[in-house]
Each structure stands twice: as structure tokens, then as C-alpha cells.
Amino acid sequence: MGWLAGFSGAGLGYTLTNRAVHGAVPKREGRLARLRRDSSNARDWRARLGIAAGTFLVLGALFAALAQLGFIGLLTPAQALCVPQGGPTVVTNEPDYLVGETVIADGCGFDSYIAQNLTLRITDPTAVVTNYTVTIDSTGAFTNSNYVVPNKDGSFTVNVLDGTTVLATTYFSTSRLPQSVTLDGGSAWTCTSGPSDNCGSNNGAAATVAPGASITVVFTVQTTGGSTWRCNQWDAEGFISGTDQFEPDHTTNGTYVETFTITAPNMPGTHNLILHGRSDDGCSSGSSGKITLTDAITVNAVANPTLSSSCGGSY
Predict the structure, then answer these.
(1) pLDDT digits (tens, 9 = 90+) for 119-137
(2) How far apart are CA 126 and CA 311, in angstroms?
(3) pTM score
(4) What superfamily in CATH does domain 89-174 come from?
(5) Residue 302 pLDDT > 50, yes or no?
(6) Where are the chain's structural domains?
């Protein structure tokens, strides 16, 4: 037992020495204190988790708002969004491009052509054709990002072909895009058919005038792809035509409005009106910027004078 007493004495000496050096040994934590500490820690973790969850909700709402406003495109690469339109469909990720940009073409709805090779054909405004082979995946879709936009002004046609059969078509441009036209302050004409840079319209208010009357035209055009707008050319169905050479020129991308006056045909009846925003001061170049207004001008017939009014008397 001597060795046990010695060991106990040594332990007691260490305890006393430890107390002298480090202070009194803390009392054993009571159960109530421990429960309070655990409860406080739990509240602290719940608060932290709540803050984290709230942060994620705020970020999610911010991301959704940016997507709705169209700003997500600034943060992520633009992608084409293809939705089948009752069969094979092809779309591009933008309606118009700057020279040198890459076109992303997406196809969908090609369920009858799964695992088959088709031709993606892009025809530029000068009729130069570029062909790519695309393979339809298991979902009936494909993606191609090989075409780089050349320095050409106008409308590009995108076709998907099975041999010589065209299965789907879309358009994009590097050009002037007609946005709206008004005649004598009536309701606006906007593109209702065709590609956006060379379109037809049938939804505006016609101008009803006397033969040879003046008509005020307000022409709104968006310039894209580095194109310019320097002059307007107009044609009333071949009966009468003219130009409007305005200043200043529009040489940067944007949406611009020009107001000018045209002359109605002398021929009574209903006439189409063609407006063409041109890229040079002479109104001779630039294939885009064209809109055809169907039945835009109605010229009233002039009543034949009576015999009395012609001869100044009554008979």
C-alpha cells in the first residue's frame, strides 16, 4: 500500500501545484448550465442557417429578375432557344449580328431524322452558300456554331435540308431593320411578313388623298451589325418615286426616325408603297432596310365637272 500512498501523494502534490500555477480548477459544469449552453448554440446555428437561406432566396430572386429583364445574356453566353413549331424548326440565337460574330443555329423537332445527317445551309445577301453537315441527336435536335458573319449587308437565309428538300427555314441579318411607318399621322405600319430587313406590312392606316397630294411619312429604322442609314428611297407602286437625302447620317447602331414628304400618284385607286432605307447618300446601295406597305395610298377619283361649271352658265 506504500506505493499507492506515494502515488496518491504525488497526484495531490501535482493538483495543488497546478492550482497554484493556473488558478483554481473549474467546477464541474452543472446540467442546467450545459442545457443553456446547448440551447444557445442551437439558436446560433439556426440563425446562421436562416441567414444563409435568406441569402440564397435573395440571390435567386435577383437572378430571375435579371433573366426577365434580359441582363442574364450579359453574364452567360447567348444560346438559341428552339421550340418545335409543329414540326422541324431552326432558330438562331440572335435576329441580327455584328460582322465577325458567330451564329449559333439550333434545330429541333427533327424526330423523324434521329441519327441521320442533314444539311445546314446559310445563304448570304450576295447568294454565297455555306453548307454544314449536322447530325440529329436522340431528342430530334442539333446545334451548330461554325458560321462567322462576313462583312455583307442584308438578310441571311438559314435552311435545313434533307437532300434537296427544305425542312425548316429562318433568317438573320446585318442590316437596317424597318421598325414602323406612319402616313399623315395615321396608325403605324410594322413588319407582318418576310425577313425583318426586307418585310411586308398590312396593318397600318392608309393615307386617302387627292391625286398628286403630299403625304408625310415618318420612317423608323434600327441599324444593326455596323450598317449605316444615309438616304430614303420610295416608290408608289411604280407610278411615282423619289428619294430623301437627309442629314446627319446615321452611322452607329441604334434606332432612328426620319420624317419626309412624298407625292401621291395621279392615278386614282389603291397603291402599295415601298420604302427603302439606303446605306449611301446617293440612295443606290444597301439591300436591307426595305418595307412594302400593302394598299397604303388611296387616291380619290376627281369628279368630272358639270357642263354648267365648265362653261359658266346653266343649260
Answers:
(1) 999 999 899 999 999 999 9
(2) 61
(3) 0.55
(4) Macroglobulin (MG2) domain (2.60.40.1930)
(5) yes
(6) 39-76, 89-174, 176-299
